[in-house]
Amino acid sequence: MNPDRTWLATVLFMDIVSYSVTDVNQQLKVKLHFQDLVLNELNKLDETETIRLDTGDGMAICYLGDPEQIYPVARKLREKFAALKNGSDFNYEVRMGLNLGPIKIVEDLNHERNCLGSGINDAERVMSFAAGNQLLVSRSYYEIVSKVSQQYSNELNHVGQRADKHDQQHDLYELIVEVVRASDLSQTASIESPSHNDSDKFDSVVIDRISKELVNYIKRSDAEILMQQSMANCGSVYELCTLLLDSITSKDDRYSFDQYLKSYGYHGYEN
Asked: Are strands 135-138 and 94-107 parallel, antiparallel or unpaired?
């Protein structure tokens, strides 16, 4: 191991949302479950090219192999995190960031490989902009994988620049998520159950994104009621967007909202 060598690595940084505010017993359950999910997917990567770093409330993966190989792993992990059921011991969310950048490989106190450098620092900052169960990707990583496969560029939506606490700008892309339809839910779940949440029909990132945009056109209190009522009466994101759009009286606002939805591929309502 040459500490003077600079490696160009793909770094997947993951952080368990609200991990530090839960009690120790719950932290242990969540962390073990999280590690099992992650390590099961990492088996698909070359172990000699993979460096795993425990960050306390998450994990960082530095991958020295082909950059595109870690993308389907990250995508599959996001799906698994989003599929965790509310009400169980494992209903946590994970923020995720992917970056391609330079690192140094050093030996830690336990004589294990560790990583330092802007590649891992920027991955953490990219992750910090993500919502729960959202995967964000830096421009440096996007430029590589988008040239490997058209599928990757189609799945990653440009969301613009964000400034970190050091005023450094990060140009970000996000994985476009798909709705979890009501028909995909467990057949044992009863819609009549008082514990049933209609938002469980949909990916939480999608609902959060649409809800935040909706309050730009109607009052927040009205938006919350409208979202709940609309989700109870539909089974797909497209149907949800149609109901929401029909509830906006201003033609200009309706058009603007639809353009926002269209940018994510959720709808295409106005001509």
From this structure: parallel
HSE, side-chain direction, 13 A CA sphere, residue 251: 1
CB of 250 closer than 8 Å to CB of 259: no
Instruction: Identify the band that residue 112 occupies on the pLDDT scale cut at 50, 70 and 90.
Output: confident
Domains observed in the chain: 6-175 (3.30.70.1230), 185-263 (no CATH)
Helix (H, G, I), strand (E, B) or coil at 223: helix
Contact 123, 101 (CB under 8 A): yes
Q: Which residue has the higher pLDDT, 112 or 8?
A: 8
The pLDDT > 70 percentage for the chain reads: 85
Of the candidates 176, 254, 241, which has an alpha carbon nearest to the alpha carbon of residue 210?
241
Nearest C-alpha neighbor of 9 from the set 53, 70, 65: 65
**Assigned token pair, 127:** 């992750």
Split at pLDDT 50, 70, 90, the class of 255 is: confident
C-alpha pair distances (Å), 195 with each of 72, 157, 200, 224, 225: 34, 34, 11, 19, 18
Q: Residue 109 half-sphere exposure, CB side, CA atoms within 13 Å?
A: 0
pTM surpassing 0.70?
Answer: no
